[in-house]
Amino acid sequence: MKRQKQNAAILLIHCPDQKGIVIAVTEFIFKNGGNILQLDQHVDAEQKVFFMRVAWDLSDFLIERDKLAEYFNTLVASRFEMRFRLHFADQRLRMALFVSQLPHCFYDILARYEAQEWQVDIPLVISNHDRMRPVAERLGIDFHHFPIDAQNKADQEAQQLALLREQRIDFIVLARYMQILSEAFIHAYPERIINIHHSFLPAFPGARPYHSAYRRGVKIIGATSHYVTAELDAGPIIEQDVTRVTHEDAVDDLVRKGRDLEKVVLARAVWHHLNHTVLVYDNRSIVFE
Amino acid sequence: MKRQKQNAAILLIHCPDQKGIVIAVTEFIFKNGGNILQLDQHVDAEQKVFFMRVAWDLSDFLIERDKLAEYFNTLVASRFEMRFRLHFADQRLRMALFVSQLPHCFYDILARYEAQEWQVDIPLVISNHDRMRPVAERLGIDFHHFPIDAQNKADQEAQQLALLREQRIDFIVLARYMQILSEAFIHAYPERIINIHHSFLPAFPGARPYHSAYRRGVKIIGATSHYVTAELDAGPIIEQDVTRVTHEDAVDDLVRKGRDLEKVVLARAVWHHLNHTVLVYDNRSIVFE
Amino acid sequence: MKRQKQNAAILLIHCPDQKGIVIAVTEFIFKNGGNILQLDQHVDAEQKVFFMRVAWDLSDFLIERDKLAEYFNTLVASRFEMRFRLHFADQRLRMALFVSQLPHCFYDILARYEAQEWQVDIPLVISNHDRMRPVAERLGIDFHHFPIDAQNKADQEAQQLALLREQRIDFIVLARYMQILSEAFIHAYPERIINIHHSFLPAFPGARPYHSAYRRGVKIIGATSHYVTAELDAGPIIEQDVTRVTHEDAVDDLVRKGRDLEKVVLARAVWHHLNHTVLVYDNRSIVFE
Amino acid sequence: MKRQKQNAAILLIHCPDQKGIVIAVTEFIFKNGGNILQLDQHVDAEQKVFFMRVAWDLSDFLIERDKLAEYFNTLVASRFEMRFRLHFADQRLRMALFVSQLPHCFYDILARYEAQEWQVDIPLVISNHDRMRPVAERLGIDFHHFPIDAQNKADQEAQQLALLREQRIDFIVLARYMQILSEAFIHAYPERIINIHHSFLPAFPGARPYHSAYRRGVKIIGATSHYVTAELDAGPIIEQDVTRVTHEDAVDDLVRKGRDLEKVVLARAVWHHLNHTVLVYDNRSIVFE
Q1: A1, A28, A51: which is closest to A284 by C-alpha?
Q2: C or N terminus of chain B, fewer CB within 10 Å?
Q3: Could you give the CA distance from residue C269 to residue C225 in angstroms, rounded to a whole number?
Q4: If DSSP codes are grouped into helix, strand and coil, which group holds residue B224?
Q5: Considering only residues 7 to 66 of chain C, which have any Cβ-Cβ distance to chain A shorter than 8 Å?
Q6: Helix axis angle, A104-114 to A251-274, nearest 10°
Q7: Cα-based distances in Å from A182 to A155, A173, A186, D225
Q8: Where does CATH 3.30.70.260 sit in chain D?
Q9: C-alpha distance from C169 to closest chain A C-alpha (Å)
Q10: Domain A190-289, CATH among 3.20.20.30, 3.40.50.170, 3.30.420.40, 3.30.750.24
């Protein structure tokens, strides 16, 4: 279980592998009154990189939250050339939801939101169509319609970014959003834009993967959730899943079976992001599950 | 693909196995101008029972819809001691949705309804709590609150049955409905009440299966959708699915992972029911997939 | 269950879709004293092609085995422009096994052979290395060593083909055979050479797919069994399966986990071939499961 | 990846949860010159028990192997009421293989042995039938035939135990061994006898689970590998897996599909045991995967 109790810190670390990293980190926590709740560690033997996720109880911790990153950086991280991210378990993230016309992932996320499955705020929905407005608004979520064409794209994205900044959005979920984001947009939210692609990547990237899967005669279809990078459908994979199909399944059946996969795979990826279990290195994700 | 074009008949048949059944049925269809769209057949070699699902285009069919069952009975079924069910692909079924307080399956079905994934009408929701009323009503579905206790149960069920009859309900879906239905109630809708149980049956029937799964230390959890019969969680299984868990998953994690399983497994079972692909014999289901 | 009783015929058919095919085929069987054991049918709605697999008991059948194909062709197939294959359930197929140095699929198939899991004869093993000779010979299977290099390839393949013909080989299984077969060789056994590729095709065709899977950071790996065609790893897929991996799995772990997948997926494909459940059309396989 | 380089120590620990355990263990390793290769930790929040698996490089470690357990016990374990097991990665375990007449798991394990997939020695096979003798002997493994009936069982088990002791057997694998071991026998190898049961436990314990699965009409079958305890099929589960079945699958098909599951699930469990990734507590297994 990666969901930590409220008053806890979570550190995600990577650095060149060497002796003494685990002891240095655990000592920092222990000597300052922290109780380790969970520790996962991984060494990529080929690239000689060390990865760690550690969570500890802050109840009796001596260093205050707003000094923690600085102290850790000075006392530990700098010695090991670490890159790290620090999160607090009780801090609710703010998600922006992007949708087009296909509603299944959108409905699914809103249902989880309404049922409070996740610890998240969704202050706004952005869409290139107006169709989902009532679904967002009946839950009190602001809905912003940004029609996009070749001419207005740069402009519309700039306005979207302004809105996201204004709303202090932490990360973006593309719930079958049918627009390709520009590199500029993507760079504003590195490793913070989660997409769902309706194939088992790297098979069938790009448009109409169910049609391609049908034509190739695969016996299993999949869905892939990944962080968006500049190269289309090539970002670090967070989660994948598959389901069996047969010759009896027409393209429509693949679409139908795929919908349920997409919902579940995207939701798992969002859950991982919300619980700070994902580290990205060299375009691959370490998911401390 | 089992979804037939609109103007089609679907026959589900079983009878003692003998020579000549396939030819008799296909001749009946062909000689009267029908074009077979799909034919699935299965022989249970042990019990010597023949099963069949056949769908055919009615565009040029000579026998009218309201005479079809009678003609088939006289000309074919009676010769082979067949039991059969006749459906028309363009006839929308009417579903009643029963829910308690856990909303995930309920939300999921309503989202499919709203997105028109299924060809179904949902005229009413019945619940032993009032909590889900706004969710039903915002989609224009009547919500009926029937609080149930040991004293009023027979009475409340009688009123529910009256309501279901009045609304010409074809089948009932228990979307995590936390009441055990009486035998009388079940007998009013034989093979037409679909339940979702949150375990891989027959493991962990009854209450709190995730707790039992945790204590037993299983490495995989499941969900099972079945038709309700008098014996608890022992009805014919329509669909099951599973997901892996580890020692890191606390009961709460099993509940979380299980929710997504339950949604998907229940939805698949409802889809099968709506498309008339399920035959029940000897408490086992034949699902012509 | 697709394994038929001994004295049975199995027909695999495809033709342009039209009215009356099912009735024509079933009438042919019934009028001549056959009892249908199993009938599967499928219409590709997009391409308007009809597919069928039908098996019937020959005990009281009026037409003799060696006339059956001719009669069926004259009386039924020619009317519908059918292409068909006729098999007899009691006829043991003769398999040639090709192997290089990786032994897991090879051992697995020989274990099934020794345990008589399959109704098959394996008169010979062909390898480009001599390493597996004792494993074949201890089961009394002839082992033929054909070292292959750029110079001798055409020659060696010609000798292999002569040997296969002499031994009346029905089909070939490439149990991780590390040579690319020439087009000429492939054309001698159309839809009768079964390969296992160690990835979830069409992802990662060609060499070193586990390395590619590792670099791409997929969360699931797969194996694919397909009939060999001239285009590498692009033949009709018979069976696929997958297994989950994590960031903790190094390439060696993918290889280890993949081995078990490969064994099982290849064995399922061979089983389908032996039981005449596979039809190929337009580079896609119809597997009547 | 849990397979450690040759010169490494592996500690498996559990104790009541409290502050400072991770730091105490890692300090012990670090201060004495060890480099941590892998560290996994888990806290059972309900039972308040701490679990850990840690592996470290011994190349520059100051404490000698034969003193290591004593030092760790004195300096760390005793302070935390730890129970621990110490292994060395380069120490080959000695496995005894028990088999009856069903050969698939037996063949599979011997194939892995012959291909050197595992780092293990198999000095002997024990069977209540003589049938598998040539299969063992052709690999140079001693085969011991112990026919068992109600009268001679205690006696035969005593002789088996003597043989196992004489051969310094570390653990036993029951590869579909069709005898129930006595409690006395089991107590001689606690958490060191691995069984494969051909169902998804706890569903269908005991005899003929495929028949029971067929009768219940499940849509998925499974296999379970567990450590043997006195209660039949109720020991701690190491690994499980499942596969889909349909109404078309007769009992024979379940047996056939199940065979491949059994092989793979048993092999994974043995692999975990060989790599010291399994801890048992309260009849549940912690598998540090």
Answers
A1: A51
A2: N
A3: 6
A4: strand
A5: 42, 45-46, 51
A6: 40
A7: 11, 16, 6, 51
A8: 8-88
A9: 28
A10: 3.40.50.170
Residue in this structure with the two tokens 């006696």, named with its chain if needed? D155
- What is the per-residue DSSP string for D122-138? EEEEEESSSTTHHHHHT
Task: Work out how many CB contacts closer than 8 A connect B with C.
Answer: 44
Subunits in contact with chain B (3 or more CB pairs closer than 8 Å): A, C, D
Closest CB from B22, B29, B37 relative to C36: B22
Specify which residues A171 forms β-bridges with. Answer: A95
Residues 6+ apart with CB under 8 A from A105: A99, A175, A176, A196, A262, A263, A266
The Cα–Cα gap between D180 and C54 comes to 45
- Is B2 a residue whose pLDDT tops 80? no
Per DSSP, the residues of D235-271 read SPEEEEEEEE--TT--HHHHHHHHHHHHHHHHHHHHH
pLDDT number for residue D184: 95
Residue B183, strand partner residues: none
Q: 């932490």: which residue's tokens?
A: A170
Q: Specify whether domain D96-172 bears CATH 3.40.50.170.
A: yes
> Which residue matches tokens 């949860």?
D17
Q: A residues 228-247 near B, CB within 8 Å?
A: 246
pTM of whole model > 0.90? yes
Count of Cβ atoms closer than 10 Å to residue B133 Cβ: 16
Token couple for C76:
């039924």
Nearest to C200, CA basis, from C249, C257, C248: C257
Residue range(s) in chain A whose domain bears CATH number 3.40.50.170: 96-172, 190-289
Radius of gyration of chain B (CA): 21
Which chains would you list as touching D if contact means 3+ CB atom pairs under 8 Å? A, B, C
Length of chain C: 289
pLDDT band at C185 (very low <50, low <70, confident <90, very high): very high
The residue written with tokens 């198999």 in the block is D122
In this structure, the number of other CB atoms found within 10 A of the CB of residue B264 comes to 24
Residue-by-residue DSSP string for B131-174: TTHHHHHTTT-EEEE----TTTHHHHHHHHHHHHHHTT--EEEE
Residues counted in chain D: 289
Amino acid B193: pLDDT? 98
Q: How far apart are CA D47 and CA D135, in angstroms?
A: 47
Q: Write out the E strands in chain B.
A: 8-16, 35-44, 49-57, 83-88, 93-99, 120-127, 142-145, 171-175, 193-197, 220-227, 237-244, 278-281, 284-287
Q: What are phi and psi of B12, to 5 degrees?
A: -115, 125
- Measured between beta carbons, the chain C residues lying within 8 angstroms of B22 are 26, 30, 36, 39
With contact defined as beta carbons under 8 Å apart, do C149 and C246 qualify?
Answer: no
Q: Which CATH class is domain A8-88?
A: alpha beta
Contact B111 A107 (CB under 8 A): yes
**pLDDT tens for each residue of C97-123:** 999 999 999 999 999 999 999 999 999
Spatial CA neighbour of B107 closest among B217, B224, B260: B260
Residue B51 — φ and ψ, nearest 5°? -125, 145
Q: Which residue of C has its CA nearest to B34?
A: C19
Check whether the bond before B202 is cis (ω within 30° of 0): yes
Whether A197 has a pLDDT exceeding 90, the answer reads yes
Alpha carbon dihedral B53, B59, B65, B70, in 10-degree steps, equals -60
Residues of D in contact with A23 (CB under 8 A): 23, 26-27, 29-30, 36
Burial C261-282 (b: 16+ CB within 10 A, else e): bbbbbbbbbbbbbbbbbbbbbe
The identity of residue D81, as a single letter, is: E
